[in-house]
Specification:
By secondary structure, the protein is of the alpha+beta class. It has 7 helices and 16 strands. The structure holds fe (ii) ion. Fe (ii) ion binds at residues 159, 161, 174, 252. The site of fe (ii) ion has 4 residues, from loops.
């Protein structure tokens, strides 16, 4: 961070060269505690027996078809919904551990609908960082509180964030806040430095006219460029309070969490309003929830 807020020249160079930048100490312990406390309240208030579609929702990124069939997922674009870890349930359909240790994430409009998340997600310091990443008119489309639960925290396979929030030109930036220390043991981020210059490989889009009973979304392969090999993957082990900024084309993943420790994180995804937002992106704001910037 520069003294005037925003990025230093070195950080801007790293962003250009490697497609990510790590900003330790960006959020205070108090701000983190407020957010985690509020997330715990949302989960406590969540009744899995009474989900929007009458059944629990499972978030499993390596099985996009499962997501596609889930109406609650699309509705969460403009709401606050809890999604279970894929491994949360026993074969008989019952939770294998307490509810608060079974949730994969909360998404996707926390930053607009909840006052505590709103306060965490907006501010001049954040606006200055994103301005220095080259975003002229920031629009915050998505927020996620990610639990990465002990023992069952699921893998998020290699992906590029522009797969999910596509604009022309590509403009999405991921803002990843560590709410706990993130290590190789509890499922930290892994990135492929410099590979933000590789092509967009996939797009996750809404089906134009789904047949009844058919998936509402699908993953479209755009480019056969392979994902980076393991030897090009670098772990991003960071302390609580760190902000990691990710270019929308930078391949990244996180491994399963098999440790006894959670790895809570919060993410925002910001696009540039000067670009054109794809009308077939899975995440749309039909019906009036206004888009806001970062100030
Ligand atoms: Fe991502």
């Amino acid at each position: 961070m520069s003294e005037a807020g925003g990025l230093t020249a070195l950080e801007r160079q790293q962003w250009q060269r490697e497609g990510f930048v790590v900003l330790p100490g960006f959020k205070s312990a108090q701000a983190i505690e407020s957010l985690r406390t509020r997330a715990a309240q949302i989960v406590a208030d969540f009744d899995p027996e009474c989900g929007p579609d009458g059944r629990p929702s499972v978030f499993a990124t390596h099985d996009q078809a499962r997501l596609s069939a889930d109406q609650a997922f699309l509705a969460s674009a403009q709401g606050i919904h809890c999604f279970f870890e894929e491994e949360a349930f026993a074969e008989d359909g019952r939770l294998q551990q307490a509810k608060h240790l079974s949730i994969n994430k909360i998404g996707h409009a926390l930053h607009d609908l909840d006052p505590v998340f709103d306060a965490f997600s907006h501010g001049e310091d954040l606006a200055a960082v994103v301005r220095d990443l080259g975003v002229q008119q920031p629009q915050v489309w998505q927020s996620m509180f990610i639990f990465k639960q002990p023992a069952i925290g699921g893998e998020v396979r290699w992906h590029q964030d522009a797969t999910f929030l596509h604009t022309t030109p590509v403009s999405v930036v991921g803002l990843w806040f560590a709410l706990e220390d993130a290590t190789r043991d509890n499922g930290c981020l892994w990135v492929a430095p410099g590979q933000h210059r590789s092509p967009l490989r996939e797009r996750f889009i809404r089906q134009a006219c789904p047949e009844p009973g058919q998936p509402l979304t699908r993953l479209e392969v755009l480019d056969a460029t392979p994902w980076p090999s393991e030897r090009h993957a670098v772990p991003v082990e960071v302390s609580a309070g760190t902000l990691v900024c990710l270019h929308g084309l930078l391949p990244h993943y996180s491994a399963p969490n098999r440790s006894p420790h959670s790895r809570h994180a919060y993410t925002l995804h910001v696009v540039d309003g000067t670009s054109s937002y794809a009308t077939d992106n899975w995440l749309q704001r039909e019906g009036g929830l206004p888009l806001r910037g970062l100030s």
